[in-house]
Amino acid sequence: MHTAINKYSLVCNATINICGCFKRRSSHFVYHPERISNELGKTSKKNMYQAINSAMDLVLSKDPNSVVFGEDVGFGGVFRCTSGLLERYGKDRVFNTPLCEQGIVGFGIGLAVAGTTAIAEIQFADYMFPALDQLVNEAAKYRYRSGNLFDCGKLTVRTPCSAVGHGALYHSQSPESFYTHAPGLKIVMPRGAQTAKGLLLSCVRDPNPCIFFEPKIMYRLAVDDVPDDDYELPLGKADVLIEGKDITLIGWGTQVHVLLEVAEIANKDFGISCEVIDLVTILPWDKQTVTKSVKKTGRAIVSHEAPLTGGFGAEISASIQEDCFLHLESPIRRVTGYDTPFPHVFEKFYLPNKWKCLQAIKELINY
Amino acid sequence: MNGSSVLRKHSLKNVLSIFESRFFSSTSEATFETKPFKLHKLENGPSTTVTLSSEDAIKYYKQMQTIRRIETAAGNLYKEKIVRGFCHLYSGQEACAVGMKAMFRDTDSIITAYRAHGWTYLMGVDPFSVLSELTGRKSGNARGKGGSMHMYAKNFYGGNGIVGAQVPLGAGIALAAKYLGTGGVCFTLYGDGAANQGQVFEAYNMSKLWDIPCVYVCENNGYGMGTSSERASASVAYYTRGDYIPGIWVDGMDILAVREAARFAIDYCSSGKGPLVMETATYRYSGHSMSDPGTSYRTRDEIQEVRQTRDPITSFKEKIIGANLVNIDELKQIDKEIKAQIDDAVKRAKADTEIPLSELSGDIYAKPLETKVRGVSPFESLEHIRIGQAVNLN
Question: Whole-prediction pTM value?
Answer without folding.
Answer: 0.85
